[in-house]
């Protein structure tokens, strides 16, 4: 089937095959990666390779550190304020459910000022980042760069002098080249474009480390994990290994993030061009802010939406039901979704429109 789930989502087939071939024995170690000590020299080589591959693929500058964290992106919602909110204040732009949750979490530790929100039009756009009245004394500005549920993404990043930009990139990381130097900190849960669920990765500008109060729990201090090369305690070993396979796939099979972006733009264009060419299905998002990863659409009625999802499933197009906050349908077309999957979806939509329009 083609799996349009918003996450956990598809992994490239070649990655799964490689993992399968190494499942029982990694190299000539006599062990599965799942079984080996994280302190062994074999595993040490794996984790080092994963970090250096990520640094290469994302072109991470020297003055940024990388850490692998358990607890998913939601734990990052707390770690960000716990580590960076030195002035007791931070700015948040709310463009959907996850940025709202991040702001609510931060409000437990200080003043999380919502400087802009797109709630007025049900999160179908991104506020104009140049027209926002940012706080001068904010410790950082937080955004969610791609809004998984509402199918929007920033067309332009806010850049406020002296205020580090912190971005949740869970549903867009590795989908295109990223200028890491524009961020103070970026983080992502891995379960969409990077690896099986179970981990978040943070890329942190060096000067932002070491600012957490003494009272911050050891495991929630970025410095603990980063200073120990993500080996302070037992890391999510298997997940890190799988991330390495995905990074090698991006480098060796796709040809890097510029090529990945080209593929993703082409896939998204197939779907959006079709949506724009007819009147049966509707995509509510302002064109400029359309996500290339999550495409939302509705049919003329909730009954037809339901029928669409059921029939699509029978045709091998699964997990198209929209998030409960939005309704309708959502096609998540992350890196691993082949072009053929999107073509089949568009063909199915045309057919459904003909039969029900
Ligand atoms: N941020 C974004 C943009 C997401 O899409 C998600 C999950 O789908 C999360 C955060 C929450 O991630 P996690 O489930 O890893 O805590």
List keywords for this structure.
two-stranded parallel sheet; globular; 9 helices; 357 residues; alpha/beta; 2 domains; 35% helix; binds pyridoxal-5'-phosphate; 15% strand; seven-stranded mixed beta sheet; Aspartate Aminotransferase, domain 2; Aspartate Aminotransferase, domain 1
Précis, in short:
α3 packs across α4 and α7 packs parallel to α9. With 357 residues, the protein is an alpha/beta fold.
Could you describe the 3D structure shown?
It is globular and about 60 Å long. Helix 1 (13-21) crosses helix 6 (237-254), helix 3 crosses helix 4 and helix 7 (257-276) runs parallel beside helix 9 (339-356). It is built from nine helices and 13 strands. It has a seven-stranded mixed beta sheet with strand order 2-10-9-8-5-3-4. It has a two-stranded parallel sheet with strand order 1-12. A two-stranded antiparallel sheet has the order 6-7. Helices cover 35% and strands 15% of the residues. The longest helix is centred in the last third of the chain and has 20 residues, at 257-276. With 357 residues, the chain is of the alpha/beta class. The two termini are 26 Å apart. It has helices at 13-21, 41-58, 72-84, 97-106, 222-227, 237-254, 257-276, 302-314, 339-356; strands at 2-3, 64-69, 89-94, 111-117, 141-144, 146-147, 152-153, 165-168, 185-189, 200-205, 294-297, 317-318, 329-332. The chain folds into two domains: 2-9 and 256-356, Aspartate Aminotransferase, domain 1 (Alpha-Beta Complex); 26-253, 3-Layer(aba) Sandwich (Aspartate Aminotransferase, domain 2), CATH 3.40.640. The mean pLDDT is 98. The structure holds pyridoxal-5'-phosphate. Pyridoxal-5'-phosphate binds next to helix 3.
């Amino acid at each position: 089937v083609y799996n349009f789930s918003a996450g956990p989502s598809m992994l490239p087939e070649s990655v799964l095959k490689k993992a399968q071939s190494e499942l029982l024995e990694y190299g000539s170690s006599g062990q599965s990666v799942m079984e080996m000590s994280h302190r062994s020299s074999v595993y040490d080589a794996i984790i080092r390779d994963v970090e250096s591959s990520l640094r290469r693929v994302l072109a991470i500058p020297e003055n940024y550190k990388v850490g692998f964290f358990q607890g998913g992106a939601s734990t990052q919602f707390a770690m960000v304020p716990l580590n960076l909110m030195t002035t007791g204040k931070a700015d948040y732009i709310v463009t959907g459910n996850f940025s709202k949750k991040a702001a609510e979490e931060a409000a437990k530790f200080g003043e999380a000022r919502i400087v802009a929100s797109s709630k007025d039009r049900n999160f179908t756009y991104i506020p104009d980042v140049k027209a926002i009245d940012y706080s001068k004394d904010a410790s950082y500005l937080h955004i969610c760069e791609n809004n998984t549920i509402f199918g929007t993404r920033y067309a332009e990043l806010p850049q406020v002098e002296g205020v580090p930009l912190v971005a949740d990139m869970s549903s867009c990381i590795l989908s295109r080249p990223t200028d890491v130097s524009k961020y103070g900190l970026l983080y992502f849960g891995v379960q969409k474009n990077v690896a099986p669920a179970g981990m978040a990765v943070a890329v942190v500008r060096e000067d932002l480390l070491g600012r957490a109060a003494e009272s911050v729990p050891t495991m929630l201090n970025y410095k603990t994990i980063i200073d120990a090369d993500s080996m302070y305690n037992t890391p999510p070993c298997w997940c890190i290994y799988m991330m390495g396979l995905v990074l090698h796939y991006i480098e060796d099979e796709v040809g890097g993030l510029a090529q990945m972006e080209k593929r993703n733009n082409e896939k998204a264009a197939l779907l959006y061009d079709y949506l724009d060419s007819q009147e049966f299905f509707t995509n509510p998002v302002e064109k400029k802010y359309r996500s290339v990863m999550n495409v939302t659409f509705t049919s003329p009625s909730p009954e037809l939406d339901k029928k669409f999802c059921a029939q699509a499933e029978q045709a091998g197009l699964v997990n198209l039901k929209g998030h409960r906050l939005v309704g309708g349908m959502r096609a998540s077309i992350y890196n691993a979704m082949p072009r053929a999957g999107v073509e089949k979806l568009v063909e199915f939509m045309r057919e459904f429109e003909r039969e029900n329009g």
